[in-house]
């Protein structure tokens, strides 16, 4: 299996309502974006009576804003029908792509066809109750396998909607991996990642509970997620910190990928086997290239120490 780890460059993806008063300034480059990727939301972040205003706002932004920001911009329509409408807007090529809400296997082809025809990328969102069934993840994966994987910036897992399917919501002090979502996160992510798809972790929506956020992102990283949704700029540095790589892992990854490396060797008491660990090593160095090395005692290390 060939893995593409370029989606690490998404970093923390900030969700913003399209009608947020700072969006125009961000897109014009008048304010520096706090994140490396952003989703301008026309779906759950908008009340029904704000939808028309949101569509007009997007149309005006595409027409008048040069989008000077280096941030990667995605738009989340409310439905496939709205996505088809937005794809016809003048200037839609200024954004990188769409977030496909509540995708299911039966709608995957239509979303992928839309992205392909509009020359955009797509971020399918797995958030419907049917995805508690591994068979539905398999069906989605098979539907997506008919398309070039490069069309997919990431597959997002929608934690809040999955919790809502059980009449639950997130609790303070408990990570997603310690609560009722643990099984579905592990199941869905492992089935998709092992098929070569980049998968992004659910939002942590208790803004003031930074310590639990830190623990959760560490668990996300260990599970192979390549990005995490943020709902507040204050979360972004903590998400990025968790994606930084230890010097020990960098050293091992470089040794594993070194030309002429032995079939098996140990570093610091840990077995390294290039034939088995090559993809892990490539993942580690991809993370390092984007996020850098972990800090110790407030000092960010370099490879030289």
From TrEMBL:
Q: Does the keyword Metal-binding apply?
A: yes
For this UniProt record, the keywords arranged alphabetically read as follows: Magnesium, Metal-binding
Coiled coil region boundaries:
none
Q: Name one Pfam family in it.
A: C-C_Bond_Lyase
List ligand-binding residues for Mg(2+): 161
UniProt xrefs under InterPro entries: C-C_Bond_Lyase-like (IPR039480), Citrate_lyase_beta/mcl1/mcl2 (IPR011206), Pyrv/PenolPyrv_kinase-like_dom (IPR015813), Pyrv_kinase-like_dom_sf (IPR040442)
**UniProt cofactor(s):** Mg(2+)
The biological processes this protein is annotated with in GO are: oxaloacetate metabolic process
Q: Which GO terms describe its molecular function?
A: catalytic activity; magnesium ion binding
Q: Known PANTHER family for this protein? A: CITRATE LYASE SUBUNIT BETA (PTHR32308:SF10), LYASE BETA SUBUNIT, PUTATIVE (AFU_ORTHOLOGUE AFUA_4G13030)-RELATED (PTHR32308)
Stated name of the protein: (3S)-malyl-CoA thioesterase
């Amino acid at each position: 299996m060939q893995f593409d780890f370029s989606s690490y460059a998404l970093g923390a993806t900030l969700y913003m309502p399209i009608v947020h008063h700072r969006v125009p300034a961000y897109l014009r480059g008048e304010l520096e974006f706090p994140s490396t990727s952003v989703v301008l939301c026309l779906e759950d972040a908008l009340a029904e009576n704000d939808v028309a205003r949101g569509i007009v706002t997007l149309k005006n932004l595409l027409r008048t804003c040069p989008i000077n920001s280096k941030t990667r911009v995605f738009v989340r329509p409310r439905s496939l029908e709205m996505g088809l409408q937005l794809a016809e807007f003048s200037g839609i090529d200024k954004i990188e792509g769409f977030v496909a809400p509540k995708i299911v296997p039966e709608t995957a082809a239509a979303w992928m066809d839309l992205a392909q025809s509009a020359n955009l990328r797509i971020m399918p969102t797995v958030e419907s109750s049917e995805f508690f069934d591994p068979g539905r993840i398999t069906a989605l994966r098979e539907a997506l396998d008919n398309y070039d994987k490069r069309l997919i910036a990431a597959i997002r897992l929608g934690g809040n909607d999955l919790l809502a399917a059980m009449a639950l919501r997130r609790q303070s002090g408990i990570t997603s991996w310690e609560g009722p979502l643990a099984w579905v996160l592990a199941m869905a992510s492992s089935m998709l990642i092992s098929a070569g798809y980049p998968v992004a972790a659910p939002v942590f929506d208790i803004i003031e509970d930074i310590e639990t956020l830190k623990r959760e992102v560490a668990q996300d990283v260990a599970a192979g997620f390549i990005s995490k949704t943020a709902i507040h700029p204050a979360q972004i540095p903590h998400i990025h910190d968790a994606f930084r790589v230890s010097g020990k892992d960098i050293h091992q990854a470089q040794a594993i990928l070194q030309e002429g490396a032995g079939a098996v060797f140990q570093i610091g008491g840990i077995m390294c086997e290039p034939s088995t660990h090559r993809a892990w090593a490539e993942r580690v160095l991809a993370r390092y290239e984007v996020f850098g090395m972990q800090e110790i005692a407030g000092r960010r290390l370099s490879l030289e120490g």
